[in-house]
Design the sequence.
């Protein structure tokens, strides 16, 4: 079997709002085709035009080769060897960042192919099944440009998640900073008010996580706010500090009464080693596409397991990435929760329309998928409708 083509589809929803910080408004869909008629699908969370260029660009010298030209004609089944080859021969194009994010989409497609070749769901090829149920959390999305509207939208989303049977939720609480919703600039006290309101809505029994999306630059300022959040019984606070400031992460982690989570932007296991060892985070959050694919995500999970750290993967794309994340989790006992947003809670068109995943939420748990590979069906009408040159 040989790889005959790697197609990159740049997708952007027709209602895209460039003022929003939701990357689920666009997607890079990668399709790896073979001479035996099988196709594998992958996706990554980055600017899709940049990702396509990383894959399709021709090489200019021996250490700056093109990703697609390196893979065409190769047997798709030796995924680790192919990843190492591409990583090495594209090293001067970028050993971190966009090149690795794009490689993650390609690797994801190769994993999908592997399952289809074997006639098995991907998770069965990754190792022993997890001994415990896979529990998803719902990411709560705010709305409105005022404090009251933001607070009430999150609380309504929390109520909706409860009705759908979720056992855990994550509330985005970002009314200031680089991710400020809809241009808001509210005080830190009001952020505390929002977290309190969501906890009241959920009651004491549901797991609550909070994402503040790089709201602070130093541990002292973060601690001046977070010290009042102990009463909310949080599983973690996600990305409180800009990811480059590892020493500040460590200072905050030493004081906080709850776990500090981070890692969504990182690529390769080596960046995570720095985050874990120097940043001293308490929850590890690889994104399967961004980190470099399922294999790199597994390496990060193994690194976390050696240190008894829970993993909660980041995933804010369509059913393609969501499925890859779930398959990883079904073979990884150290993954505590997975990010999951069913169509009833989605506001982005691509999340609702691009892919139908083989994932069922039942009694607050995700059941093991049964279709070969990722088990994803692509809606090609959506690809045609939202495709961009």
Sequence:
């Amino acid at each position: 079997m040989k790889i005959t083509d790697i197609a990159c589809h740049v997708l952007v929803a027709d209602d895209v709002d460039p003022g929003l910080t939701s990357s689920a408004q666009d997607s890079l869909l990668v399709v790896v085709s073979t001479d035996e008629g099988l196709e594998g699908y992958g996706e990554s969370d980055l600017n899709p035009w940049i990702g396509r260029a990383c894959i399709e660009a021709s090489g200019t010298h021996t250490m700056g080769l093109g990703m697609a030209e390196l893979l065409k004609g190769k047997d798709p089944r030796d995924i680790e060897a192919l990843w190492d080859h591409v990583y090495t021969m594209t090293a001067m194009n970028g050993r971190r960042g966009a090149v690795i994010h794009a490689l993650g989409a390609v690797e994801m497609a190769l994993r999908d192919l592997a399952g289809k070749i074997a006639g098995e769901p991907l998770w069965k090829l990754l190792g022993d099944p997890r001994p415990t149920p896979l529990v998803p959390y719902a990411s709560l999305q705010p709305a409105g440009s005022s404090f009251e509207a933001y607070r009430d939208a999150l609380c309504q989303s929390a109520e909706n998640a409860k009705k759908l049977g979720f056992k855990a939720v994550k509330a985005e609480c970002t009314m200031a900073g680089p991710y400020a919703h809809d241009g808001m600039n509210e005080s830190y006290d009001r952020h505390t008010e929002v977290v309190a309101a969501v906890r009241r809505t959920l009651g004491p029994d549901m797991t609550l996580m909070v994402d503040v999306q790089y709201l602070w630059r130093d541990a002292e300022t973060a601690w001046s706010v977070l010290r009042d959040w102990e009463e909310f019984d949080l599983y973690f606070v996600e990305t409180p500090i800009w990811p480059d400031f590892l020493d500040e992460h460590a200072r905050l982690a030493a004081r906080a009464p709850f776990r500090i989570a981070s890692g969504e932007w990182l690529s390769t296991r080596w960046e995570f080693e720095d985050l874990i060892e120097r940043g001293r985070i308490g929850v590890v959050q690889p994104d399967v596409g961004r980190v470099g694919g399922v294999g790199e995500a597994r390496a990060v999970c193994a690194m976390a397991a050696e240190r008894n750290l829970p993993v909660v993967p980041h995933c804010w794309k369509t059913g393609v990435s969501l499925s890859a994340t779930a398959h990883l989790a079904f073979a990884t006992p150290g993954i505590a929760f997975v990010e999951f947003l069913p169509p009833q809670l989605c506001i982005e068109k691509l999340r609702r329309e691009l892919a139908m995943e083989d994932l069922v939420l039942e009694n607050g748990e995700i059941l093991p998928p049964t279709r070969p590979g990722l088990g994803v069906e692509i809606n090609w009408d959506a690809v045609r409708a939202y495709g961009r040159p």
Observations:
- The chain has two domains: 3-120+381-388, 125-378.
- The chain has a mean pLDDT of 96.
